[in-house]
Amino acid sequence: MQVADQRTTTPAPNDTHPPARPARRPWVARLKRDRWLLLFGLPGLLVILTFHYIPLLGNVIAFKDYQPYLGIQESPWNGLANFAVIFNGDPAFLNALGNTLIITALQVVFVFPLPICLALVLNSLLSDRLKRLVQSILYLPHFMSWVIVVAIFQQMLGNAGLISNWLLRNGHDAVHIIGNSDVFKELITAQVIWKDCGWGTILFLAALSHIDIQLYEASGVDGASRWRQLWHVTLPGIRPVIILLLILRLGDILTVGFEQIVLQQQAVGTQVSEVLDTYVYNNGILAGNWGASAAVGLVKGLIGVALVLGANKLAHIFGEKGIYQK
Amino acid sequence: MSASSSAVPPWAGPRRPSPPRRPGAYTGQPPPKLPMRALKGVALAICCLLVVGPFLAVVATSLADAEQVNAAGGLVLWPDNPNLNAYRAILAGGIVTRSIVVSVCITLVGTALSLTFTALLAYSLSRPGSFLSKPMLLTVLFTLLFSPGIIPSYLMVKQLGLLDSYWALILPTMISGFNVIVMRAFFMELPQELIDSARIDGAGELATFVRIVLPLSKAVLAVVGLFYAVGYWNAFFNALLYLNDNAKWPLQLVLRSYVVNSSSLTPEQLDVSSLPPQQSLQMAILVLSLVPIALIYPFIQRHFTKGVLIGAVKG
C-alpha cells in the first residue's frame, strides 16, 4: 500500500515565509513513485505518437522520389524537385490554391459573423425556456455527418428536389443549384452555415453570460439605449472570444471542408471544386504522385502553423490574450 | 451530475458579484420593444424551420407508399398511408444491414477504447507534479496545432498493415488531443482532498481512479463519449481512404453510394424479392443513419456547454 507522498504535504499557499522547497527527489525515485500514473498514460500516448508524430517523419517523402514498392527508406532522394509544382506554378495546383482562398474568404465573411449575430439574438431573449429550445434545435445539425448534410441538401435543392418540384408544379422553372458549378462555392458556404452556425454560438453565449450586469445598469443610468449598450458593453465583452476564434480560423486558412467537397466534386468538376486537400488526395493517393502531393501537404501544414503563431503574436501586440500566454 | 456544477468553475473567470441569471431574469437592460421582439421571434422560427423541415420531409418520404412517392416525383411532405416497407427491405439482411452492423460495432468498440484510454491519459496528466507529466502534456497539446497530413497518415496506416482492416477506422482517431484536454481540465477541478484521503486510506492509483474519480466525472465522460461516438458513427474520410473492399463498408460509405451518388439498390443487394421506390429506400437509409444520434442527443445535450468550454478555454 502507498503512503501519502510529497505532493500532498506542500506548505499552505498563504504562508508568508514559505520554507525552502524540499530538494527534488532523484528521477528514479519519482519514476518509481509515479509508475502507475505513467502506465495509465502510456497506451494513449503511444497512439498519439504512432498516428500524429511518426507520420510527421513520413513527410520526408516530400524530398524523395517515393516508389510504393521500394518503401520510404529505399526510395531515392530527389531534393526539392517535388516542390516544383508549387514554385513553378503548376496550373492544377494554382487552381486548387485559388479555390481554397476564395472559399476561405467566403467563410470568413459569411460563416464567421453569423454565430455571433445568432448568439446576440438568443442572448437577448427574455424567456430562458424558449432560448434552450431554440439552442437544442440549432445544435443538432452539427452532429450529422457531411454525407447526411449533402444528401439532405440534394433532396431539398436538387433538380428533382423538393423546391424544384414545388416550383415546377406551380408553373415556374426548376432551380438549378446542386451540380451547378457557377454557384458551387456559395452552395458549400450555405451548407457550412446550416450545419455549424448554431453550434458556433456556444462559446459566444458563454462569454455573453459572463458580462457583468452592473455594466448594463451603469450605462443605462448614463442614458444608453439598448443599441448603445450592445455597441459599448456587449461587443467589447465578447471581444476576446471573437479574436481567439479568428486566430484559430486563420490557422485553418488553407483547410476547407475536405469531406464536404469530395462528396460533391463529381457533380461540378474539379475546376471549381478542387481545393488543396482534395488536390493532395486526388493527385497523391488516387493518381500516385506521392512526392509532389506530400510536398503540397507539407507546405500547407507549415503555413498553417506559421499563421497561428504569427496571429497569436499579433494578438499579444494588441494586448489580447490570444490562444496561449507567452 | 458533477460535484462542481454549482460553483463557478475556474475557467469562467473571476467570481462576479452579480447574481446568476434565472429564467426570465433581470439582465440589467431595459426590455426590448415589441416590434423588435416580434422580428426576433420570426427570424428564429425561420431558422428552426430550416433545420427541422428537411428532417421531417426525409422521415415522411421514408414512410410513404410507392404511389404517393411516384406522384410527388420525389420528397413527400405528409405520408397518406404510412408504412414501414422501405425499412423492412433495408433491414432484410442485405448490404445496408451489413453496413449498419459494421458501423454499430466500430462505434461501440471505438468509443469504449477511446473513452478508456483518454480518461487514463487525462488522469495521468491531471496529477500535479507527477513525473514527466509536463512533457507528456506538451506532446498532447502539439497535436492540436498541426496534423501530419493526408499522405503521411495514409502511408503510416499502410505500413502497419491496417489497410482494409476495421482497425484503420478506430486506431488513427482513437485519441483526440482536444478530448484529453477537456477531461484533464475536469479532473483538475475535482477536489484534490478526495484523492489525497483515498490515498491515506490505502487506495492505490487504480482504485482511486476507478472508485473516486470516475464516479464524480459522469458528466464529462458522457460528453466526451458522445463526441467520440459521433466521430466513429460519422467516420467517412477514414473509411474512404483505408477500406477498398466494399464488403466492409460502414454506413456512411453506403450512404454516399446509394443516396448522395444515387446508385440504385437492387433486390439482390438487399436480399428481398421486390422493392419500394428508390426514393423511399434512400430516405430510410438516411433516417437510420440519424437514429442513434437523435436517441442519445437529448440526454447529453445539457452537458455540452461545459465540455466545449473547458476544451476551448484551456486548450
UniProtKB/TrEMBL annotation, chain A:
Instruction: Please note every region of biased composition (Polar residues).
Output: 1-13
- Quick one: where's region Disordered? 1-24
CDD domains of this UniProt entry?
A: TM_PBP2
**Cellular localisation:** Cell membrane
* Subcellular location, principal: membrane
Domain named ABC transmembrane type-1 is located at 97-311
Q: Which PROSITE patterns match?
A: ABC_TM1
The record describes its membrane topology as: Multi-pass membrane protein
User: TM spans, by residue?
Assistant: 36-54, 101-125, 137-157
| Pfam families, A to Z | BPD_transp_1
**Family matches, as InterPro entries:** MetI-like, MetI-like_sf, UgpAE/MalFG_permease
Q: Which UniProt keywords apply?
A: Cell membrane, Membrane, Transmembrane, Transmembrane helix, Transport
Q: Its family?
A: Belongs to the binding-protein-dependent transport system permease family.
Full protein name: ABC transporter permease
Source organism of the structure: Tenggerimyces flavus
UniProtKB/TrEMBL annotation, chain B:
PROSITE patterns named among the record's database cross-references:
ABC_TM1
Q: What is the annotated localization of this protein?
A: Cell membrane
Chief location category: membrane
The UniProt family comment states: Belongs to the binding-protein-dependent transport system permease family.
Q: Where is this region: Disordered?
A: 1-30
Q: Which organism is it from?
A: Tenggerimyces flavus
> Which residues are listed as membrane-spanning?
42-64, 100-123, 135-154, 166-187, 219-243, 281-300
Q: Which residues form the ABC transmembrane type-1 domain?
A: 100-296
Specify the protein's topology with respect to the membrane. Multi-pass membrane protein
Q: Does the keyword Transport apply?
A: yes
Is-annotated flag, keyword Isomerase? no
Protein name in UniProt: Carbohydrate ABC transporter permease
- Swiss-Prot/TrEMBL keywords: Cell membrane, Membrane, Transmembrane, Transmembrane helix, Transport
Please name the SUPFAM superfamilies in this protein's record: MetI-like
InterPro entries, per this entry? MetI-like (IPR000515), MetI-like_sf (IPR035906)
PANTHER family assigned:
ABC TRANSPORTER PERMEASE PROTEIN MG189-RELATED-RELATED (PTHR43744), POLYGALACTURONAN_RHAMNOGALACTURONAN TRANSPORT SYSTEM PERMEASE PROTEIN YTCP (PTHR43744:SF9)
